[in-house]
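[step 3/7] fold_predict: job queued, chain A
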Amino acid sequence: MTRKTTVYSKPSCGQCNMTKIELNKKGVEFDEINALAPGNEELAESIRDRAVEKGIQGSFPYVTVYDETNELIADWFGFIPDNINAYAAVRDEEEAA
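[step 4/7] structure written:
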């Protein structure tokens, strides 16, 4: 089992689109979930809670990365190419091993 990346997005979100484009360029597989879709109210609330916990204004996308034991190893809000690059580099090292 490998790492699992999820992009929680919202419709018409420029940062969400840029994040997905960059992940695709790096070859990082990810799931996308529309956090604002009907029925996802609890999910949206938990994302807002996480933003408060991290002391930031919640923005989208919200990206999570879990390791092979299903432990959260990284999460961030917004389009952050450095985080994407760091994750892709680790993935490349794991695949080379």
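[step 5/7] annotate
Residues 81-96 form the longest helix (16 residues).
Strands lie at 4-9, 31-34, 62-66, 72-77.
exit 0
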